[in-house]
Specification:
Phosphatidylinositol 3-kinase Catalytic Subunit, Chain A, Domain 5; 2 domains; alpha+beta; 8 helices
Length: 273
């Protein structure tokens, strides 16, 4: 299945619901779904503003991070990028949206990690300790690394989910998903993007950690850093392939610079530990 569909698709049949951006910035993130014999497909748009229309590049970020996670060998939800016409408030927009399949297995239900933590935690147990007790330590450490590399500033407690199957008596952490508010998504113009310090440690949301993506790396014990496939400079082309129709080349070049420099910094920090 193609990861990027460049030919314009008529998707005006989708009904979009608004989900407020939890980070407190202006705008909304619109979501929709449809269903076929194989199950549900979920769609989302980049930031939507009632006056400016669909702005930002969060959907492109999802594809880049999807590819990065595959290169590093981290389990995650896969996305597709689709060039589409959509209808919002009786107005048609040509845009790029991303699509994903339901990651729940038959019989599973999902619950946000923060809600599950509140219901099942021990007295005085931190979210990190709770995850370790439940056997999710390796997955959490992988998440902290990727969120540092992409400067994900929206890893709140509902952007992590727990999947439960009462019949099988299984509880598992969902694969990583929802990485749109990362990379250079804070920048509202090309000028701001070009001025951005791509290695700066900006404030982030992290349910299991702190407001610093860099400090969160210190939560990983020196002998427990994930065994990831090393990122290489030659990976640039595979990360950015086919995206120049959806995002200007200047932005793509700067996004690669950000990922590559932060990877080098992570490698230095890990080797020092």
């Amino acid at each position: 299945m193609e990861q990027i569909i460049h030919q314009l698709q008529d998707m005006t049949y989708l009904s979009w619901a608004k989900s407020r951006n939890s980070s407190g910035t202006a705008g909304s993130f619109l979501k929709a779904y449809d269903e076929d014999a194989e199950g549900k497909t979920y769609y989302k748009l980049s930031n939507y503003d009632a006056w400016k229309g669909i702005i930002g590049h969060e959907c492109v970020n999802e594809i880049i991070v999807d590819r990065l996670l595959s290169l590093l060998g981290i389990e995650h939800l896969s996305y597709r990028l689709i060039h589409a016409s959509v209808l919002i408030d009786q107005k048609e927009h040509e845009t790029w949206l991303c699509a994903s399949r339901d990651f729940k297995k038959r019989g599973e239900s999902k619950i946000a990690l923060d809600a599950y933590y509140q219901a099942e935690r021990l007295p005085d147990e931190s979210p990190m300790d709770f995850c370790i007790r439940n056997g999710w330590e390796s997955a959490i450490y992988e998440m902290l690394v990727i969120d540092y590399l992409i400067l994900n500033h929206d890893r709140h407690g509902a952007n992590m989910e727990v999947l439960r199957d009462p019949r099988q008596r299984t509880v598992r952490l969902a694969p990583l998903f929802d990485h749109g508010l990362s990379l250079l998504s804070r920048c509202e113009s090309t000028e701001a993007m070009l001025r951005e310090d791509v290695i700066a440690d900006k404030p982030v949301q992290c349910f299991v950690g702190s407001r610093s993506a860099k400090e969160n790396l210190s939560l990983i014990p020196p002998d427990r850093h994930p065994r990831l496939r090393p990122l290489k400079e030659g990976d640039r082309d595979s990360l950015l392939a086919g995206l120049s129709d959806a995002l200007d080349r200047q932005w793509l070049d700067r996004i690669w610079e950000m990922i590559w420099k932060r990877w080098q910094m992570y490698e230095n920090l890990r080797n020092q530990g």
